[in-house]
Amino acid sequence: MTDDRATDAAAVPPAPAAGSATDVARRLEAILLVVDEPQSLVSLAAAVGAPVPAVRQAIEALVDDYDGRTGGPVRGFELREVGGGWRLYVREEHDDLVSEFVGGQAPARLSQAALETLAVIAYKQPVTRSQVASIRAVNVDSVVRTLLSRGLITELFADAETGAINYGTTDALLVHLGINSLDELPPISPLLDGADEVAALDGLDEGVRR
């Protein structure tokens, strides 16, 4: 009698050896799937526990793989270097598709945390995620992703030195608020350092939640 378990085991390819090029590439993919900002080679090397040259080689191999230069199909995403760091992005030709899908999945209302973060970005833009987090004194990663998916904020540019993404609001926010420009946002007191988001919420809350 044939041992089915032995047959199944033989059909499963062995896991790549720890530290091999394939193992480094797989660990890099795991990290790149969850990061929200471009990561330098040094940061990625520290994250996966591999030398920088090995990480650079693995990155190049992943780029070739995703771009279809290794015999496989061109993926719907790409690994792109931005501001001295690496991050996965949707390919430009699929931007409209993804925006439509995400927009259809988005909830009708924003949470209080999202509204406060949106207010900070609206008044402080261009502003990085870490700067917003410093103002709100909480982690804002998931909230920023929500606002991006709703099309209310966008990535403006990456800092040339740190690679940190700077965010700003979109025309979609102006439409939701019923205003023509950011100049029409309600004024805030320059004397209250921590009150930016509080002062803005009254105007943003009603407009965005319509």
The structural class is: mainly alpha
Find the count of extended strands (DSSP E, 2+ residues). Answer: 5
Average pLDDT: 81
Distance between the termini: 68 Å
Helix and strand pattern = HHHHEEHHEHHEEHH
Q: For the record, what CATH class of the largest domain applies?
A: Mainly Alpha
CATH superfamily of the largest domain: Winged helix-like DNA-binding domain superfamily/Winged helix DNA-binding domain
CATH architecture of the largest domain: Orthogonal Bundle
* Spatial order of the strands forming the largest sheet: 3-5-4
Number of helices: 10
Q: Fill in the CATH topology of the largest domain.
A: Arc Repressor Mutant, subunit A
Principal-axes shape call: globular
Bin the strand percentage.
Answer: 5-15%
Q: Enumerate the spans where pLDDT stays under 50 for 5 or more consecutive residues.
A: 194-199
From the alpha-carbon coordinates, what is the Rg to the nearest angstrom?
22 Å
Helix content: 40-55%
| Biggest beta sheet attributes | 3 strands, antiparallel
The number of distinct structural domains comes to 2
